[in-house]
Amino acid sequence: MAVYTHLSAENLSGLIAHYDVGELVSAKGIAEGVSNSNWLLETTGPDAARVDSPHGSARYILTMYERRIKIGDLPFFLGLLDHLSAASLPVPRTIHDRSGAAFRMVGNKAVALIEFLPGVSVDRPTPAQAHSVGKALAGMHLASADFAGTRENDLRPSDWQALLGQYTDSQLAQIDADLPEFIEAHLPRLMAAWPDDLPQAIIHADLFPDNVLMRGNAVSGLIDFYFACKDMAAYDLAVTHAAWCFDRTGEHFDAAVGLALLEGYAAVRPLSAAERDALPILAQGAAMRFVATRAADWIDTPGDALVTRKDPMEFARRLTFYAEHGAQAFTI
Ligand SMILES: Nc1ncnc2c1ncn2[C@@H]1O[C@H](COP(=O)(O)OP(=O)(O)OP(=O)(O)O)[C@@H](O)[C@H]1O
Ligand SMILES: N[C@@H](CCO)C(=O)O
Known about the structure:
Layout: H1 9-16, E1 24-29, E2 37-43, H2 47-52, E3 58-64, H3 74-86, E4 94-95, E5 104-106, E6 109-115, H4 127-143, H5 157-165, H6 169-175, H7 179-193, E7 200-203, E8 212-215, E9 218-222, E10 229-232, H8 233-244, H9 255-268, H10 273-300, H11 313-329
Helix pairs in contact: 4-8, 4-9, 5-10, 7-10, 8-10, 10-11
Adenosine-5'-triphosphate (ATP) binds next to strand 6.
């Protein structure tokens, strides 16, 4: 589920009237995603958009920012979409209202209208798809070099520690009996080994398959930039590797998908020796980041809530894999 706020047809038409996108034809709530409310809107469209549309209408995504996102960060997130789409990356551009604003307030919540991109998210990526994703990620890192905005990563190792530190061992053990010991065994070690001198870029930081739209083997959309921040480019590659190269449970690593992702990335942005050497640690850290946020969401979300909780242990297994086999997994 991901429509937390009801907007009537009148509310939506009134909102759309502030943009040069024609009149509202239809609006559908989008079920995917958990952070924000999203609608797929069809409008009669400005003339330019109508030409491209098979239906004679134009399509947009309307997002209402619900809980996690700070309004102060929106100029960064939305400015980044415009910067990357202007650099010809497959990133939705934002539609500005007639006053030139990239977002508007509806009551006390911010909303933004962004371009709809075609494509579907894949569940089981092939090597060819992973290769395209690697290239797109590297292209994003290069294109962000001249983006004026910046945002600190608020999910660095000390933040994982602070997040997990809010919970008692017995709360964590209710997720999985081994989780407290697992965190104790790995988190201090990762914090001590965490590099701080690798090349930085604006990173996506959450490029899971559900945040990539594909048409066949080609990437048609990179979406959901709401964790984007300035941090190590190789860390973003490690996050993407952890997200793309395993089955959902984290039990099975797909070496061919992993290799294709790395080769695709390096074809566009070659990795330095220091970055390559750091990848096993960065990937363990990436896995720990998702253990931490998933564990916090798990404890804070009632078991009978409509949102399906994501299992932290799927990423604990990935971390174990990287600790044991990271060197081989990142050899290309
Ligand atoms: N620009 C776009 N073009 C086409 N579809 C989109 C676009 N943006 C979002 N979507 C659709 O809306 C869904 C939810 O979007 P998104 O992942 O940004 O939501 P969210 O609530 O922020 O997600 P999450 O919970 O993963 O943070 C996506 O899975 C996709 O189906
Ligand atoms: N992609 C994340 C959710 C957003 O941080 C996960 O699967 O845990």
